[in-house]
Write a structure and sequence with these properties.
Order of helices and strands: HHHEEEHHHHHHHHEEEHHHHHH
Strand order of the largest sheet: 1-2-3
CATH topology of the largest domain: hpI Integrase, Chain A
Strand content: 5-15%
Shape: elongated
Helix content: 40-55%
Number of strands: 6
Number of domains: 4
Mean pLDDT: 75
Distance between the termini: 104 Å
CATH class of the largest domain: Mainly Alpha
Length: 414
């Protein structure tokens, strides 16, 4: 391929010199390429001085319309500062790369805020930041800054994608409060699902507004419609005994797959574990010769805990860990697999079919019946507050009954 002459490159003498050096080095062989770094450095210095883009200034281009990276787009976008008080008036400042800042003065703060909102929306519209691009940036934030688990991030992205539908390719600045409410009211499904989606979307828009992607929070005033269903279907004490008996019966069978499924299904009832906490446990989490089961990663800090393994359940967990490496999974299956087997064992035991979380709730009730304090039960479940335990899992009346029994026992004469 013929080399282009320096006058064919309108980006400056330094760039032309560098390109000529590269072409010459390539023609002479590998030993001549040592001079290329020097040429590239001269381009970088010239670019820094002139503001022109240099060979060292490039960044990875995101898959966005026009091939412009998010970083480059953010740099080129005008920024709106304010409003802020200046004497008896209010100002906003428009900053644009390579241009002097422009200051606009207003008689009232209301007028200044209105103009700032209008300008931010116009900037976002012109630069084409779509809802999808904003979701992509939010996904990175959830993973890198907040450290959320992959499953939680996937759920959030699914909910946001479902909410926005065809509007996902629109500029985010064009999503007005009226449009956002229309999208929410268009959701179908259970009340809890719609309200969870609304909560996720509100957090997303808070992030987008803080990052300057949109001048307004269009869902800020939207309230969820319908009544949430708190609590999970649970088993009674007799039903829990039947369920556990069936699990232990199957765990003692000779079939490997059946044995693993039975032990995994029993774990939410025995330990009060979430489904993900069952499926994510590794061999190394079974500690102190099987006496302790550690939960090392959870939804919150309170979820990180160590649980006592009952003596009668130790052999079953140790059998799962046998012939495995420390970082191997105890169960080796996902949550869907666990949910399915919990349902199947409920049917086999002749008890109502409850979700895995229902077994976790049953565990909390049994702990309270055994006279554990609400705080102790809350900590065992990995909750940050007792209110969460009662709101979603345990029966608060059981705690009141235990309080009454403890109080009356203290009054019994010696």
């Amino acid at each position: 391929m013929a080399a282009q002459s320096a006058d064919q490159f309108p980006t400056g003498d330094a760039l032309a010199t560098a390109l000529a050096a590269i072409a010459a080095a390539a023609a002479k062989g590998p030993e001549a390429l040592a001079g290329v770094n020097k040429a590239l450095a001269s381009v970088g210095q010239a670019g820094d001085a002139s503001g022109a883009t240099s060979l060292c200034d490039t960044s990875i281009v995101d898959d966005v319309p026009g091939g412009v990276s998010t970083t480059e787009r953010d740099k080129d976008m005008p920024k709106i500062d304010g409003p802020y008080a200046h004497g008896k008036r209010f100002r906003i400042r428009v900053r644009e790369r390579g241009k002097p800042a422009k200051v606009i003065s207003f008689a009232t703060e209301i007028d200044a805020k209105a103009e700032a909102r209008r300008l931010r929306r116009e900037i976002a519209r012109q630069h084409g930041i779509t809802v999808q691009q904003a979701i992509n940036t939010y996904t990175d934030h959830m993973k890198k800054d907040r450290g959320l688990k992959d499953r939680s991030i996937e759920t959030t992205v699914y909910r946001l994608t479902r909410l926005f539908g065809r509007a996902i390719d629109q500029p985010i600045a064009t999503i007005t409060p009226a449009k956002a409410k229309e999208l929410y009211l268009g959701l179908t499904g259970a009340v809890d699902s719609r309200m969870n989606t609304l909560a996720e979307a509100k957090t997303f828009f808070q992030f987008a507004k803080a990052r300057g992607m949109t001048p307004v929070h269009p869902l800020e005033g939207v309230k969820g419609e319908g009544r949430r269903h708190y609590g999970k279907a649970k088993l009674s004490r007799d039903e829990a005994r039947k369920f556990l008996a069936k699990c232990l019966e199957l765990a003692g069978s000779g079939r490997e797959k059946q044995r693993v499924a039975a032990v995994a299904a029993a774990m939410p009832l025995v330990f009060g574990l979430r489904a993900s906490e069952v499926t994510e446990r590794q061999v190394r989490d079974l500690d102190d010769q099987g006496a302790i089961l550690r939960v090392t990663r959870a939804k919150s800090r309170a979820g990180i805990r160590s649980l006592q393994v009952p003596d009668w359940f130790k052999p079953h967990l140790q059998a799962l860990a046998a012939n495995k490496q420390p970082h191997d999974l105890l169960v080796g299956h996902d949550r869907t697999w666990l949910h399915r087997h919990v349902g199947q064992i409920c049917e086999a035991a002749g008890v109502p079919k409850v979700p895995t979380h229902g077994l976790r709730g049953t565990h909390s009730d049994l702990a309270l019946v055994a006279a554990s304090t609400p705080l102790a039960v809350s900590q065992a479940l990995g909750h940050e507050s007792v209110s969460t335990t009662f709101k979603h899992y345990a029966d608060e009346n059981l705690a009141e009954q235990n309080d009454h029994q403890r109080a009356t026992a203290a009054l019994v004469p010696n």
